[in-house]
User: What shape does this take?
Amino acid sequence: MTKTNLKNSSRYIAVTILEKIEKNHSFSNLLLSEAVNNHQLSDKDRGLLTELVYGVIQNKLLLDYQLEPFIKQPKKVENWVKQLLRLSLYQMTQLDKVPTHASVNEAVRIAKARGHKGISGFVNGVLRSIDRQGVRSPEDITDPVTYLSIKHSYPKWIIELLIEEVGKEETEKIAQSLSKRAKVSLRVNTTMKAMDDVIEQLGQEGFKVRKSEIAKDGLICENGLPVQSDLFEKGIITVQDESSMLVAEAMQIEGTDKILDACAAPGGKTTHMATYLNESEGAIVAVDLHENKLGKIHENAERLGVSGLIETQVLDARKITEVFASQTFDKILVDAPCSGLGLMRRKPDIRYQKSIEDVFSLQKVQLDILNNVAPLLKKGGRLLYSTCTITLKENNEVIETFLRDNTDFKVEPVFTHKGVVQLSKEGYVNLYPHYFDTDGFFIASLIKQK
Assistant: This one.
């Protein structure tokens, strides 16, 4: 393999991406998309690249634990060399299809291409030693927090918080579930085409799909992503996780409703809600703090055929009373900024980029938004609060604090069409990822009393 060809290989590109993620806190999904666009990779190589990047991130702490005995001076190891060793060890221990000798030889070639003879010798020595001696097991760790942290590669603060909130057994189930590959879930706009007809057409196009267990408009695609289908181009299907589809269901929208979507970008829930509205009577005001993100809402709304129902505004939801009068809206959605820990299956790097301090600072933002949008809701109207995180601090505790300070609101049990998702004793949706292999999600429904 020539040096040019090597630089276009999945493993070489993966090392570069992993280096950028750790150095710049870049998002893995964006770097992967960029790499796929910049390199002519076969479907097989594209799949390997994704597997390597996500696999290393999802197993980083375990890989470091296993590498540690073989590296005498870890602080002297350059970032890219560390990524190369992690990637190679991941292949050796967790990818059966890649022979060990192939992983080692490729790593040595990359080390020679990027570094010098000394680095390639070091990489070769570490990996050959691992091949001879094997790696240590986290089962030897006696401290339960450290054990779960290393075994499943989550920072200790996440493990500690989850154990405090849901117990050790549930914490391990959550950690295991978030290490699985994310399902491809599609939302069907059934106002444009019947669900069964969509299933039939996708089947004819070679896709194996089944109905979502929890979401009325959801499909699970088990072999690929049908974005080249004319169903996608015509806006009949779009990519959206099943958990977030429950939001529009829970809003219980009437055709003439005027709705505020207070933290709207990128617009998946906005466009879903719009499908429930009458073209000439209903309306959604979608606001977001970031103007560039509102462009994504326009783009999605155009493709999905609902742009006439959605008005966008660049606005901080915490200052929304300066723009709208009290009791303007029939329904309000606050899909609040959050730690995003429920998305770690799709965005595994989140776990290393957040801290417990972020959770507490986000609590304040979430409450500020709720308190500021509350006056804009008509009496008898519904305020829905949702997040894509799994911490009670950002979910249940935020709602409890809001209700304590806003006695004109009361909780109602969250409505879902299929009724499969079990509600908490308070009537909330605390959807942990291992329940249905979805993103982790939270929904609370509040009514403003008359």
Observations:
- The chain is about 45% helix and 15% strand.
- The chain has four domains: 3-136, 140-177, 184-239, 242-448.
- Residues 356-373 form the longest helix (18 residues).
